[in-house]
Amino acid sequence: MPDSLHPRLEAWLRYADDLGLGPFYRDRVAATQQQMEIVGSIAAASAVSPAGPSSRAVSTPANEFRNFVSGDSMPPAKPAPAPIIVPPSGASLFEEKIENDSLERIRTDIGPACTRCKLHQGRTNIVFGVGNLKAELVFVGEGPGRDEDEQGEPFVGRAGKLLTQMIEAMGLQRSDVYICNVVKCRPPENRLPEKDEIETCSPYLLRQLEVIRPKVICCLGACSAQTLLNTTQGISRFRGEFFDFRGARLMATYHPAYLLRNPNAKGDVWKDLQKIMALLGLQAPKKK
């Protein structure tokens, strides 16, 4: 560096130091030696144990730090689970409140030949919903299957028969509850509804729930639960728990189609249904 710059640089550094902006240089070698001395002192302190040198190492922040510095493998920290964000009990600021709404009006608004999303391309019938218009319990699935598409009624195939058995085990009949889906048209090959399809059709589901105003909403499977709870968490994260949802109590459990593939999960679903029964004051019918 030219000698003419030394006075200017020195004056600038003194000015910066007066402002508390320094230091601008750090002795990295000295800093590294200081870190190693700290690690050595931690290691020496950790080596002293009342149980003797043969005692099992206890996982502590000091041990984890020592392992990290020495290069030993350390299990990655588990990320905190994302919170389940439950929509507010009232209507959203972005939702239009429809006065004197009704299920018949919702059905009319959808229309018999809806083309709002791509699911209409392979649809036979729009599957709106069925059941008690004043039901205290509403079951919400993901979307119609082949049998539902052909008959225009939700849950009439094998999974539907199992749902009927579940409802009857609770001491109810299908006519006592209301059954519907997130989307009203069958997804191809019974795949899960896609995001754009859910965004297009779910407002009609919300209107249905607003009109019926049930005490309990039972979401069948992850799709309906994730839609209403506004979460991407897997269903095992919150299955069997109650959430407040627009004046109702919402619980998610496994879809009947899942139970057909995994019969061992029926016991878990029965426990969930018993919680709903307790909330509604229902008793299982006595075996004959």
Distance between the termini: 101 Å
> What is the H level of CATH, i.e. the homologous superfamily of the largest domain?
Uracil-DNA glycosylase-like domain
Strand content: 5-15%
Mean pLDDT: 80
Structure summary, number of beta strands: 6
Rg is 31 Å
Sheet of most strands:
6 strands, mixed
Which CATH class of the largest domain applies here? Alpha Beta
Sequence stretches where pLDDT stays below 50 over 5 or more residues:
24-32, 45-80, 85-94
- Secondary structure class reads alpha/beta
Helix content: 40-55%
In total, how many domains does the architecture comprise? Answer: 2
What CATH architecture of the largest domain would you give? 3-Layer(aba) Sandwich
What is the molecular shape?
globular
Q: Work out the helix count.
A: 10
Question: What's the helix-strand series?
Answer: HHHHEEHHEHEHEEHH
Spatial strand arrangement across the major sheet: 1-3-2-4-6-5
3D structure, described in words:
This protein is of the alpha/beta class and 288 residues long. It has 2 domains: 5-48 and 57-70, no CATH class; 103-280, Uracil-DNA Glycosylase, subunit E (3-Layer(aba) Sandwich), CATH 3.40.470. Helix content is 41%, strand content 9%. It has 10 helices and 6 strands. It has helices at 5-18, 28-47, 61-70, 103-110, 146-151, 158-169, 195-212, 222-229, 256-261, 266-280, and strands at residues 130-131, 137-141, 178-181, 216-220, 242-245, 248-253. A 6-stranded mixed sheet has the order 1-3-2-4-6-5, sandwiched between helices. A hairpin with a 2-residue loop joins β5 and β6. α2 packs across α3. The longest helix is centred in the first third of the chain and has 20 residues, at 28-47. The relative contact order is 0.11. Residues 24-32, 45-80 and 85-94 have low confidence and may be disordered.
